[in-house]
Amino acid sequence: MTSPTTARRMWRVFDTLHAVTYFAPESDEEFRACGLKGFWMGYFAGRSAPMGAVEPAVATATFYNFAPRMASRALPDAWGFASPAAVLEARLAGMDRALGRIFGADRASGDVRRAAELGRRAAESVTVVGRPLAAGNAALPWPDDPLLVLWQATTILREHRGDGHVAALVDAGLNGLEAHISFVGGGGVSRAVLQPARGWSDDEWDEAERAMVGRGWLDQGEPGTLTAVGAAGRQRIEDATDRMALEPWDRIGAEATEELRGLLKPMATRIAQSGLIPAVNPIGLAPET
Fold it and tell me: Which domain holds residue 184?
């Protein structure tokens, strides 16, 4: 059996590969080329397309942490410009170009092929019932190119973990905005970085902070800072997320898991050293270096 810490260690390396999707200019270019208007329309359509032509309420519920107006500005208008199938083609084309630029001739290396094999095994092992974003991506056909197979595997694994994280937040009684505030309060990322990227107004943020002070999660004397109660609550959320993300690593076993991590780590380092993913980002991901 693997340890819950394994899930977090694996997340740091595989999510760095997946996160290229959101930061690579090639992704934005391909989404615009297929007819989508602007970065955020590409983001909402690209991430939700595996579930079909969903309404904004579905994207808001599954993504969980965005202000509802963010999804409403992108959906359902996006589906009038490009079908989900066309959006998925654009998403894959963007990743083909972006990962090709980063890895060059190494994209066909034996290490990439082996990582793709192990990553696919892990991704195909997960249970997707109750995990809509993981389920949508797991239902897609696999690409032929090994590097794109690896990217798709990391996408399934990332959404599987994310769906579990949402379940942990719901269980803790935190809505999407409160989840952000607890993350900021624990030092995960600053309000200045997170709030504008998720579309919440100052009034909404301040009101939610007051509510969390009332619940004992935030310190009244130090605005935005978690109390001991809040810190413990946040830790329970992170621990539950890790436990619910253990399935693929238990399924493929500790030896294969560590082999995959060893293959992914230099790839994550290469992405980090490219400067593509900012050191401070709304995801709260610190890429391996």
Answer: 171-237
